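#help-structures

NK: newbie question. if I give both the sequence and a SMILES, will the prediction place the ligand too? trying with adenosine-5'-triphosphate
OV: yes, paste both and it writes out the complex. here, I ran yours:
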Amino acid sequence: MVVVIMGVSGSGKSTLGELAAQELGGRFYEADDYHTAANINKMARGEPLGDEDRQPWLAVLADNITKWSRQDGVTILACSALKHAYRLQLKGESGANVHFVYLHGDRELIYDRLAKRENHFMPITLLDSQFATLEEPKEATYISAALPGLKQLEKLKQFIKSI
Ligand SMILES: Nc1ncnc2c1ncn2[C@@H]1O[C@H](COP(=O)(O)OP(=O)(O)OP(=O)(O)O)[C@@H](O)[C@H]1O
Ligand SMILES: [Mg+2]
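OV: that's the protein plus ligand as structure tokens.
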């Protein structure tokens, strides 16, 4: 199965995803690693990506998700997946075996975390555009970004067990 951990930049997707994959003996991927250099440069300049920029990225991710969903075990993908249409595209045709977990948190909490984070290409100035783009999912399991990492891990493991 594939579990996509979604949410705005700084919500804790990579931190939780990496931890959970380790704990479950699963694979972990970063959606950021599938961006073109042009997209990475654009974000690093502080310019938000639009639908057009995200299109080739989502297409490549959707292909990979299909492949991963057919493999044994759990694959965890950290991916912002901000809009409903993006999530539909990521799920692909059948959507079988692809589950979304949403790390939700308010702007203040996430702003504070991003202000302290080091060595990451995503500038804090893009946070407002991330919240503006975000369409909160109906189809996802919610985990609060405000919880300590180990509590989040526990909830995620419970969810995966229940699938
Ligand atoms: N549960 C948590 N409690 C406290 N701090 C956390 C928690 N989860 C993550 N953090 C911290 O918040 C910051 C953002 O986390 P992380 O880089 O995992 O977010 P992200 O969603 O992957 O962001 P991006 O989309 O920009 O890659 C990091 O400095 C991380 O150490
Ligand atoms: Mg990340």
